[in-house]
Amino acid sequence: MDYSQLVKAYNKVESTSKRIEKTWEIQKLLKATPDELLDEIILLLQGTVFPVWDSRKLGVASQLMQKAIATATGMNEKEIIETWKNTGDLGLVAEELVKKKKQVTLFQRKLSVEKVYSNIQKVASMGGAGTVNRKVQLIAELLTSASPNEAKYIARTLLGVLRIGVGEGALRDSIVWAFLPKVLGVFFLCECGKIVPQWNFCLECGKENPSGTEAKGEIIEKVEELKNVKTDIVIPKSNPREFYNYLIERTQDAYNLTNDFGRVAKVLKKSGLIGLDTIELELGNPIKVMLALKVDSVEEGFERVGVPALVDHKYDGFRMQVHKSNGKVRLFTRRLEEVTKQFAEVAQVVLETVKGDSFVIDGEAIGFDPKTSKYKPFQDISQRIKRKYDIEEIAKKLPVELNIFDCVYYNGKNLIKEPLEKRRALVEKIINPIKWKIQIATAKKVSTAKEATEFFDGAMKLGHEGIMFKNLSAPYKPGGRVGYMCKFKPSMAEIDLVITGAEWGEGKRSAWLTSYDLALLDGDTLLKVGKASTGLKEKSEEGLSFSDMTNLLKPLITKTDGKHVTVEPKIIVEVGYQEIQKSPTYSSGFALRFPTVIRLREDKALDEIASRSDIILLFKK
Ligand code: AMP
């Protein structure tokens, strides 16, 4: 398949901010993709060549990219840096300089998706000293054969910043549009004269139906009987919109179990909806973890999860998903990154103390001070997660204790649909607790506000963050924030937001970025909700400092405008505030009063930050 075909889709997707149009373009591309390339195309659409759980990561350094552009185009690096300064995007630099060169030489080979994918993968897999030249050669080889426009996307992909604005939701919807419309029962006639499923857009011309959510038109055809579709609900044939939502939900569930859109797409293409039943949790492949809603009182906790409820201590550590199979243990973070090497001692403890040949258990790893036997806040141990060298040394200095609270797979049986009460009973049976190594999360079945409050006070006395309320009869919902578990913490309100811009400070703070633009998510779009310039420290010894934050943000700068810079939305922070107000100034329509940065949330992914509907809910409260 020609890479130009993918680039055409990139251009179209990048040129619109409307999710429906992005989805439309992607599904067209997916339909045109041969089966054997679906995995590659889907990863490249996500701006990568590795699935999330692969420890190899993209992110070629800008200096290396400059060298490669220089080699491919014959421009000197000074010229490249000049062009870069003007655009702030090395992808655009590659495009411009390849264009200049192409005016002189006419020679151009066609690039295939396979070639681009394999060179990018080779570059990202190479490590260590002495590989720079080889990497430059591989990248230059691609850029030499690329058209200017192709060069832009090759460079961006390698740098790890594709910037076409495709989120998980849009990709999932495109897969459904591409491979599932045939199972929709009722089709309509669009204004453009083509056959349209009864959604609010035309599958032929891509136009949104101006009449709103329900398509207008005359029923012209029943495409396929739905009776062969095995599902666990009665298919609402009379309401295709509801059925469409059901398809989306089933597809999302399959993704939450596999984190692999390629696999989901191939199954849907081959076997349709019924194929999703064959998608199972695979040991060694992380599943998305179940997420928590926030409640503001113990009463609200009971309202959400029912009475009686299970309450757990809420530990201030980081999520650890533990897989065991074939005598080996593997550990994953909440963002599905593998950390087995970084926490080899934890894997060993699990091997020695948890009964069972195969399992997936879910817990929280908490740091502690071996001298004082006191728990430490997450920040103090977060450096262990990304550590690549001196791992044993740091493991001794910053030990962690694993607290297990769930089990979703055990000895060949998937327990996701089992009620929590059963799963928790299993946790208690299979774990041999050893203080400071592995524990069963402290929990209690409670029925009254008084019992829950006492439990909360106990957790706070031990220095924990708060408590979790859990629904005893609920299944485990991978990736879901559905209220099967809720967190209850002391009062200062806080939300997680992403930094999209910043401003250089004044006077003795002029070397630091000291004020940060904060944004929430609305679908795939980032909308501003305020600016924070407090909460950070002057010195790193005291905690997260302005200088630490500046070091994090500087490499992410994409545009400079006087003192203000725009940055890639990568740094997620927990922000405290006193109140939410309506605001005409910020694009979200809301503003936080007295926002202050509490801490970094390196464990969270962009799609986990607060959404506009979260803010609306909080505002109403
Ligand atoms: P938050 O990170 O503030 O959204 O809170 C949810 C997180 O609390 C989960 O993702 C876990 O990492 C963590 N946590 C700590 N203790 C527990 C527990 N007993 N049960 C579930 N999650 C817990």
Compute the separation of the termini in Å.
53 Å
Query: What name does the CATH topology of the largest domain carry?
Result: D-amino Acid Aminotransferase, Chain A, domain 1
Q: Rg, please?
A: 26 Å
Q: What is the name of the CATH architecture of the largest domain?
A: 2-Layer Sandwich
Number of helices: 20
How much of the sequence lies in strands comes to 15-25%
Which shape, going by the Cα principal axes? globular
The residue-averaged pLDDT reads 87
Assigned CATH superfamily of the largest domain: DNA ligase/mRNA capping enzyme
The main pleated sheet reads as:
7 strands, mixed
Number of domains: 4
Record field, number of beta strands: 24
Structural class: alpha+beta
From the structure above, extract its key features:
4 domains, 37% helix, alpha+beta, D-amino Acid Aminotransferase, Chain A, domain 1, binds adenosine monophosphate, single chain, 24 strands, 621 residues, globular, seven-stranded antiparallel β-sheet
How is this structure best described in words?
The structure is a single chain. The chain is of the alpha+beta class and 621 residues long. The chain folds into four domains: 113 residues, DNA ligase, ATP-dependent, N-terminal domain (DNA ligase i, domain 1, Orthogonal Bundle); 100 residues, no CATH class; 196 residues, 2-Layer Sandwich (D-amino Acid Aminotransferase, Chain A, domain 1), CATH 3.30.470; 127 residues, Beta Barrel (OB fold (Dihydrolipoamide Acetyltransferase, E2P)), CATH 2.40.50.140. The chain contains 20 helices and 24 strands. The chain binds adenosine monophosphate (AMP). The site of adenosine monophosphate has 13 residues, from strand 5 and strand 15. Adenosine monophosphate binds next to strand 5 and strand 15.
